């Protein structure tokens, strides 16, 4: 197969930004099409001849960085084309998150100094909660240390404000990629892909090449599923406790066989196992096939997930002991840090991924009336 080297590498045609480099490489892929069956990105590429910035933003967020295309490509370095599509799309993806983040600039700060920022926020908030535990509580269990009213006053804005920031960011993204009115069919296709992590199964259905180079592995897919379902179980646990408190008048603490505990404990276990596994895989993977400058921020996000799950499990295990007070402060500090950083950490990738999958389902279904 022969491609025009001059056209594909001319610096006067292609600039040096992440988006322009992604455009150069995507056009090469569109001419080659060897990887057409690898994931959702390549069929989407073949639907276009000219790629706008919005098209590239959509492709970047549709990419799961499984890296199979890199190891299958005949145009990687030392070829003159120097194709490294996983890296080009990873950097374009991060660039889009920073561009759409609200308020602007915070995503860039976290991506560059994620570990230090997350650690400082956890410590600062934990100290605040530890100071609050010195005040008299007004109930049993955790409420003997921090009253229900204080928890609501702190966590309600800490949840709602980041949620508003996420909504604004997604609205900006949807407008940029040309999204239209969403149908139930679009959502069904997107959620089905997300629930099974189908795009992490590789071109042959044997897994991806994230940590094994040119060998397939399903570990990253399984660990991603553990994190996703662990987070959803923890969220369901908190939601069920809220409903029990306000609708049924059943106040914490709850027994081990109650819905909040039956959902929260396995959720925490899955978070710890999945997050720790993903952190380990990141140490084995080639950073040059992602966005090397963002490695610290990505690792900070994964470790924060592990810390939230681990401190929650330790707090449950310490029930009735003298360690509850300080463990409660540390756990609540990590949870609050997680909420506040969600719009600017890699946690936002889950929201953008769902938006990208939804937009992809729209494009596959054809133009809407």
Describe this structure in words.
- The chain has 369 residues and is an all-alpha fold.
- The chain is built from 14 helices and no strands.
- α2 crosses α6, α10 packs antiparallel against α11 and α12 packs antiparallel against α13 (324-341).
- The two termini are 40 Å apart.
Task: Show the helix and strand layout.
Layout: H1 5-9, H2 18-32, H3 41-45, H4 53-62, H5 68-72, H6 85-100, H7 106-133, H8 148-176, H9 184-196, H10 219-246, H11 259-284, H12 295-317, H13 324-341, H14 348-365
List descriptors:
Citrate_utilization_prot_B; transmembrane; 369 residues; 0% strand; 4Fe-4S ferredoxin; mainly alpha
Task: Briefly say what this structure is.
The protein folds into two domains: 94 residues, no CATH class; 264 residues, no CATH class. The protein is built from 14 helices and no strands. The protein is mostly helical.
Which stretches of 5+ consecutive residues score pLDDT under 50?
Answer: 4-15
Level of helix content? 55-70%
How many strand segments? 0
The percentage of residues in β strands lies in under 5%
Rg on CA atoms, Å: 22 Å
């Amino acid at each position: 197969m022969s491609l025009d080297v001059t056209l594909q590498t001319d610096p006067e045609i292609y600039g040096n930004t992440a988006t322009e480099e992604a455009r150069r490489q995507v056009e090469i892929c569109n001419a080659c099409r060897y990887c057409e069956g690898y994931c959702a990105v390549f069929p989407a590429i073949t639907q276009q001849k000219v790629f706008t910035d919005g098209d590239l933003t959509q492709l970047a967020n549709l990419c799961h960085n499984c890296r199979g295309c890199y190891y299958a490509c005949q145009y990687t370095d030392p070829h003159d084309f120097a194709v490294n599509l996983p890296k080009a799309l990873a950097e374009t993806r991060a660039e889009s998150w920073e561009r759409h983040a609200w308020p602007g600039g915070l995503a860039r700060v976290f991506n560059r100094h994620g570990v230090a920022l997350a650690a400082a926020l956890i410590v600062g908030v934990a100290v605040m909660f530890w100071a609050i535990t010195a005040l008299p509580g007004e109930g049993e269990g955790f409420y003997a240390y921090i009253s229900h009213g204080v928890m609501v006053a702190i966590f309600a804005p800490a949840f709602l404000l980041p949620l508003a920031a996420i909504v604004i960011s997604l609205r900006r993204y949807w407008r940029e990629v040309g999204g239209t009115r969403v149908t139930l069919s679009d959502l069904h296709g997107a959620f089905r892909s997300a629930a099974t992590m189908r795009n992490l199964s590789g071109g042959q259905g044997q897994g991806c090449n994230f940590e094994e180079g040119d060998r397939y592995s399903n570990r990253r897919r399984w660990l991603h599923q553990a994190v996703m379902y662990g987070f959803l179980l923890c969220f369901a646990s908190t939601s069920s406790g809220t409903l029990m408190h306000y609708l049924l008048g059943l106040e914490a603490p709850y027994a081990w066989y109650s819905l909040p505990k039956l959902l929260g404990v396995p959720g925490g276990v899955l978070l710890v196992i999945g997050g720790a596994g993903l952190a380990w895989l990141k140490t084995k993977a080639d950073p040059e096939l992602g966005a090397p400058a963002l490695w610290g921020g990505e690792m900070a996000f994964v470790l924060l997930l592990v810390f939230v799950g681990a401190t929650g499990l330790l707090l449950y295990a310490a029930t009735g002991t003298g360690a509850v007070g300080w463990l409660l402060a540390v756990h609540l500090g990590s949870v609050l840090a997680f909420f506040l950083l969600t719009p600017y950490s890699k946690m936002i990738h889950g929201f953008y991924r769902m938006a990208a999958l939804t937009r992809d389902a729209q494009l596959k279904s054809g133009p809407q009336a």
